[in-house]
Specification:
Helix content: 25-40%
Shape: globular
Number of strands: 21
Number of helices: 13
Radius of gyration: 32 Å
Oligomer: single chain
Strand order of the largest sheet: 16-17-15-14-20-21-19-18
Largest sheet: 8 strands, antiparallel
């Protein structure tokens, strides 16, 4: 009823170990009314927690959000727009009126893995950035190059400005220099990197031009345009390359996020993106409403026909009776259709709400475990932890008895109404202790134990196969099935060796995304397996109506 006028655009630009965010709040004419910037250091191969928190906090300001980024991978190709693409292996996007971009699905999965649970809405190719630049500048008989985060993307145009060749290639990364022993300090390291970088870039451009002339005839490159948001090659190196190739070379620095913004707000943005935004489907309620309204109109017309037309017509009594019975049959048929629609809506709603309820329960349990583990001080060595519905048991080594009463006990009382301890013998790791906590205090007032059971039946063997794909090679699963009346209960008992509790959290989130009503159930046990690994034992239950 009250449609939100504003929308937001968040661009994610990755550079080696840094990710830059640019937030724009846009009015209904897509004009910016607010802009923010944020930078995050990225050390792992997935987007870090602070980055996700920042994006989620921005998304809460506006329901209509666009999260856009570039896929930086050399497995990208350019084909004519009528080329048939294997949809199982590749994604495609529009480049211009004559060509399409093709991306390996493996590259897409790598991108999604890196950004983890950040829901990207549009993913563009660096070739599209280069396409925009070339379309706005003299581009006939030209070699265009876009350098971005350790990769270079090349496009060659003919005398009409049409693309006749392309290349995507990786350049040397600074982490390759880090493996070398040829530098003594950071200055030497950077100097070595700059030399290798210029040499590699020169080699790629030179070889590309040679290969182009070998494979294509009747074309000639007159100039080179190089664009990048960082200048990592000196003017001296550019001059040397220009003299070697006997071509004019122009280098320009650009704002990548500005080009991303142009792409994401263009009329054909959805076609240019490898991720296609699907049109919002009408709700089941509206579909039912229109069907019911149509039924009502037909019934009203039939009643009017019986009352006014038949009584005044010249039909015989038998013909009138036959016509009335025929109309009754139609009304009954329409009524049965309406009832089927209502049942379908009920089943659909029940299944959807059940999945949401199970997901909420799993999220609540994970939240509880995370918060309780976070309470344990760094100087406490945890051997194992067992979590039950309202209780927990911890086996740990403490520096002293005082540490329990001074540091651990006050923290645990924030979660439990009672906490007791039994001390054992002293070991090299400290004083052994068993801590028993009872009477869990509710963490979330909106906590909802999943009681809804979806109508949609799923083969428990299919669920088992899906789970095995998600579990690592160091996992063991046992399955059992029980039936109570019309309810079947399938229990999966799983033991898995993982590196950290985060692996367990990610596994449960992945399971929830599959759309199965799998409930995480107690007891859940986390224990030390060896010096670097953990063993986690947990239960998943699948409840279904037969």
């Amino acid at each position: 009823m009250f449609e939100e006028k504003f929308q937001q655009n968040i661009s994610l630009i990755k550079h080696d170990s840094q990710i830059k965010l640019r937030y724009r709040k846009l009015d209904e004419n897509k004009r910016g009314v607010k802009t923010r910037l944020a930078n995050f250091v990225q050390k792992d191969d997935t987007a870090n927690k602070d980055l996700r928190l920042k994006i989620n906090s921005w998304k809460q300001e506006c329901k209509r959000s666009e999260l856009v980024t570039l896929v930086n991978h050399k497995e990208q190709y350019i084909c004519k727009k009528d080329t048939k693409i294997n949809a199982k292996k590749f994604l495609k996007a529009k480049l211009d009126n004559n060509n399409i971009l093709v991306l390996s699905k493996l590259a897409s999965l790598e991108l999604q893995y890196f950004y983890n649970d950040i829901k990207l809405t549009k993913v563009f190719s660096p070739f599209s950035i280069l396409d925009i630049y070339l379309s706005q500048n003299p581009n006939k008989n030209c070699l265009g190059a876009f350098i971005y985060d350790g990769f270079i993307y090349l496009l060659v145009t003919n005398s009409r400005g049409e693309y006749v060749d392309f290349l995507a290639s990786s350049i040397i990364e600074i982490k390759e220099i880090d493996k070398s022993n040829f530098f003594e300090d950071d200055d030497s390291r950077q100097e070595l990197f700059d030399e290798f970088y210029a040499l590699k870039l020169r080699e790629i451009i030179t070889d590309s031009i040679k290969d182009f002339y070998k494979s294509k005839s009747g074309y000639f490159i007159e100039k080179i345009h190089i664009i990048s948001d960082l200048k990592q090659i000196s003017d001296t190196d550019l001059d040397e390359l220009s003299q070697e190739l006997m071509l004019d070379i122009h280098f320009y620095t650009i704002e990548v996020d500005e080009y991303l913004f142009k792409l994401s707000t263009s009329a054909d943005a959805n076609e240019r993106s490898f991720i296609k935004t699907k049109a919002t489907k009408k709700s089941m309620f509206f579909r039912f409403f229109f069907t019911f309204l149509l039924t009502l109109l037909l019934v009203s017309a039939s009643v009017y026909y019986v009352k006014f037309y038949l009584n005044k017509s010249s039909l015989t009594e038998k013909e009138k009776i036959y016509t009335i019975e025929s109309i009754k049959d139609r009304i009954y048929s329409l009524s049965s259709i309406k009832n089927k629609i209502l049942k379908t809506i009920d089943r659909f709603t029940s299944t959807r709400e059940a999945l949401k309820a199970h997901s909420r329960q799993n999220t609540y349990i994970l939240k509880r475990i995370k918060k309780e583990l976070a309470l344990i001080p760094d100087d406490v060595y945890l051997n194992f932890a067992i979590f039950h519905n309202s209780n927990s048991t911890l086996s740990a080594n403490l520096p002293s008895k005082l540490d329990y009463f001074k540091n651990l006990y006050p923290q645990l009382r924030r979660f439990y109404s009672r906490s007791s301890v039994s001390f054992g013998r002293t070991t090299p790791r400290g004083l052994s202790a068993i801590v028993i906590n009872k009477g869990l205090l509710v963490l979330d007032k909106n906590h909802h134990i999943a009681k809804e059971i979806p109508h949609k039946m799923i083969s428990y063997k299919k669920v088992e196969r899906r789970l095995k794909k998600l579990l690592n090679s160091r996992s063991f699963m046992r399955m059992s099935v029980k039936r109570r009346g019309k309810i079947s209960i399938v229990t999966y008992r799983i033991d898995s060796i993982v590196k950290s509790p985060n692996d367990f959290y990610d596994l449960i989130q992945s399971i929830d995304s599959y759309g199965f009503a799998l409930s995480l159930s107690y007891p859940i046990k986390i224990e030390k397996f060896d010096a670097s690994d953990l063993k986690i034992g947990f239960i998943l239950k699948l409840l279904q109506k037969r």
